[in-house]
Amino acid sequence: MRSLEVTTPWQEEDEDVEVDDMELSKNSRDEMSEESSSDEATGRKIARRRTGGSTTSGGSSSGSTTTRRRKTGISARERNLRRLESNERERMRMHSLNDAFEQLREVIPHIKMERKLSKIETLTLAKNYIMALTNVICEMRGEEKHYTFQDVSEERDPVDTVTTIQEINREQNNNSMFQENLEIPQENSLINSR
DNA sequence: TAGGCCATCTGGTCCT
DNA sequence: AGGACCAGATGGCCTA
């Protein structure tokens, strides 16, 4: 995994002097918006955009415009290095999160669409699926259903398209179009395996 | 062109 | 102390 190597003017400043962190952030952003590269290992695009970041980080006092004294013993070069390493770790973290989303998309039944499910759609659909499966289990045990689903309207959102297992079955039986497009992963055929 | 979705950067906070 | 996690900010891409 390759880390970004960007030389910035403030990197040259090695003495432990007082610096303005906000100015540091600004310089960093400006400097880093120059190039983009790709991850050799994963082929992922690295730093598709590098002009992000904020001068007013949320929920904290980081947005203060006051000049703060840098921690002693850490040079600007060292701080830059740590920031770049931190960025790299954060990128990797987000990539693994996205991988998890992708795996989730693959195991929940949904209508095939031109575009892939968004993250919020994926989570909502997964939640509905879990609720539906829970109801199926309850039904098999002769227990009362845990969850109730609202009636689906005529115009349905992709997320609401499959709300219950019964609905999946009904749709599969009645709608050839649906039959053609609905993807129900084998691993998840809990209903048939019991 | 506005709005939705997304990737990335960033700094604060939490955790080990 | 350092890494993980989190949320705000920003800008790119795409679609209606």
UniProtKB/TrEMBL annotation:
Q: What domain of life does the native source organism fall in?
A: Eukaryota
Annotated Gene Ontology cellular components are: nucleus
Per its record, what are the GO molecular function terms?
DNA-binding transcription factor activity, RNA polymerase II-specific; E-box binding; protein dimerization activity
Task: Tell me where in this chain the BHLH domain is found.
Answer: 81-133
Positions of the UniProt region annotated as Disordered: 1-90
UniProt signal peptide: none
Instruction: Name it.
Output: BHLH domain-containing protein
- Compositionally skewed regions (Low complexity) per UniProt: 52-66
Any Gene Ontology biological process: positive regulation of transcription by RNA polymerase II
Compositional bias annotation for Acidic residues: 11-22
Residue spans with biased composition (Polar residues)?
Answer: 1-10
> Could you tell me where the Basic and acidic residues compositional bias lies?
76-90
